[in-house]
Design a protein that fits this description.
Elements (H helix, E strand, L loop, with lengths): L6 E2 L9 H9 L19 H18 L5 E6 L2 H13 L5 E6 L2 H10 L4 E7 L23 E4 L1 E2 L4 E2 L11 E4 L16 E5 L10 E6 L16 H6 L9 H17 L2 H21 L16 E4 L4 H13 L2 E2 L10 E4 L6 H18 L1
Parallel strand pairs: 1-12, 3-4, 3-5, 5-8, 8-9
Antiparallel strand pairs: 2-10, 6-7, 9-10, 11-13
This protein binds 4'-deoxy-4'-aminopyridoxal-5'-phosphate.
C-alpha cells in the first residue's frame, strides 16, 4: 500500500504527467460544461468532434506533420499494425524488407510473412539485439513495397540514431516507445505507427501517420476497420474510436506544448537518461549491455552480478516506491522505462537507490 504516488518505471502502460491526470480528474464528471464525462459522450457529438479535431491539430503541431500526411486514431495496438501495414501496403510487388532489432520487429516480420514475400534486410539477433545495424549492413531490395523498422526497442533498450536512406521505397516505422520523445522529420517516413500507452495516452489508442499516396491500395479482403482509406475518409470514425484515450492524448499534447515542445522535452529526456547511464557505467555491480551509440533514452536496461541480486534489487526498490523495474521476462535483469512523464526526480531517486544498494550489498 502506498500513501502517495510512486515512481513507476513500467514499459507500458506507464506514467502519465501528474498535471494531466489532475486536469482529467477535474473534468471527469462534467467536461467543459457538457454535463457529462468524455467517457459518456457520443463520438458523433459536436463536443467530441471538437476534442478529436483538436487532438489531431495538436499532434500535427507538436510533430510538425506535413500537410500531405493523414493522422489516424485507431485501435488494436501496435500489434494490429503488424498486419494492417502489409495488408494495406504490401500490394504492388507483394514484397517488403524488414529490419530485425528486437522482439517487436520480429513479431512484425512474422505477421507480414503471412501476406507476401518478406526479406530480412538486417538482423542483430546474433548480438542479442544489443545494437542497431549500420547503414552498410542493410540489404535493401529495390522493388520492396516498403521497408519496416522499429525506432526504439522497448525490451532491449536500443534506439536508431539515424534514419536509413531507402530511396523511393517508403519507410515504415514502429515508434511505439519513442514517439513524442524527440523531434522527427516525418517526411522521411511513409508511415509511422505507435501504441499510445507509453508516451501519448492510456492504452487503447494507436496513432498512424501516413503519407496520402500510400492510402487506398489495400487488398480487397482487407477488414474494413483496418483499411486506412476507410478510416482516413471517416476522420478515424468509421466505427467508435477510443474516445477517452484520444481525449487524454489531447491533454498530453497540451502538456508537451506547455513545456516548450519536443526540442525541450528531448533535452530533458537526454539529461534523465545520462544520469542513469552514468550511474550504471560508474558502478562495479551493474552494467548495461548496449553499444553506447545505440542506447535508448526511453528504456534503460541493466543487470547486476546475479539473478538473485537482481531479484533483491527489484524487491527493495519497490519497497522504496520505485516500481516495475524487473526486466522483460525474455532478457531478465532490470529495465527502467523513463518515458516523457517520468520526472527527473524519479530518475534521481533511482540513481540514489542504485548507489546505496551497491554500497550495502558488495
Ligand atoms: N512495438 C513496440 C516497440 C512495443 O514496445 C510494443 C509494446 N510494448 C508493441 C509494438 C506492441 O504494442 P501493443 O501492445 O500496443 O500491441
Amino acid at each position: 500500500m502506498f500513501e502517495k504516488r510512486v515512481y513507476n518505471f513500467s514499459a507500458g502502460p506507464s506514467m502519465l504527467p501528474e498535471s494531466v491526470l489532475l486536469i482529467a480528474q477535474k473534468e471527469l464528471l462534467n467536461y467543459n460544461g457538457s454535463g457529462m464525462s468524455v467517457m459518456e459522450m457520443s463520438h458523433r457529438s459536436k463536443v467530441y468532434d471538437e476534442i478529436i479535431n483538436k487532438t489531431e491539430e495538436l499532434m500535427r503541431k507538436v510533430l510538425n506533420i506535413p500537410q500531405n500526411y493523414k493522422v489516424l486514431f485507431l485501435q488494436g495496438g501496435a500489434s494490429l499494425q503488424f498486419a494492417s501495414v502489409p495488408i494495406n501496403l504490401m500490394t504492388k510487388n507483394n514484397k517488403a524488407d524488414y529490419i530485425i532489432t528486437g522482439q517487436f520487429s520480429q513479431k512484425a516480420y512474422k505477421e507480414a510473412k503471412k501476406y507476401g514475400s518478406v526479406n530480412i534486410a538486417a538482423s542483430t539477433e546474433a548480438d542479442n539485439f544489443s545494437r542497431i545495424p549500420d547503414a552498410s549492413e542493410l540489404r535493401l531490395s529495390e522493388d520492396a513495397d516498403y521497408v519496416h523498422l522499429c525506432t526504439n526497442n522497448t525490451i532491449f533498450g536500443t534506439k536508431w540514431s539515424y534514419v536509413p536512406d531507402t530511396g523511393n521505397v517508403p519507410l515504415v516505422a514502429d515508434m511505439s516507445s519513442s514517439i513524442l520523445s524527440e523531434e522527427i522529420d516525418v517526411s522521411k517516413y511513409g508511415l509511422i505507427y505507435a501504441g499510445a500507452q507509453k508516451n501519448m495516452a492510456p492504452a487503447g489508442l494507436t496513432v498512424v501517420i501516413i503519407r496520402e499516396d500510400l492510402i487506398g491500395n489495400a487488398r480487397d479482403y482487407v477488414p474494413t476497420v483496418i483499411d486506412y482509406a476507410v478510416q482516413a475518409k471517416n476522420n478515424s470514425m468509421y466505427n467508435t474510436p477510443s474516445t477517452y484515450a484520444i481525449y487524454m492524448c489531447k491533454l498530453v499534447l497540451e502538456w508537451i506544448l506547455s513545456l516548450g515542445g519536443l526540442k525541450e522535452l528531448n533535452r530533458i529526456n537526454r539529461e534523465k537518461a545520462a544520469l542513469l547511464y552514468n550511474c550504471i557505467d560508474d558502478s562495479k555491480m551493474f552494467s548495461n549491455p548496449v553499444k553506447r551509440s545505440d542506447r535508448s533514452i526511453m528504456n534503460v536496461t541493466f543487470k547486476s552480478v546475479s539473478d538473485e541480486t537482481d531479484a533483491l534489487f527489484v524487491k527493495l526498490a519497490a519497497s522504496e516506491g520505485l516500481l516495475t523495474l524487473k526486466g522483460h521476462r525474455s532478457v531478465g535483469g532490470m529495465r527502467a522505462s523513463i518515458y516523457n512523464a517520468m520526472p527527473t526526480e524519479g530518475v534521481e531517486s533511482l540513481v540514489r537507490f542504485i548507489r546505496d544498494f551497491e554500497k550495502n550489498n558488495s
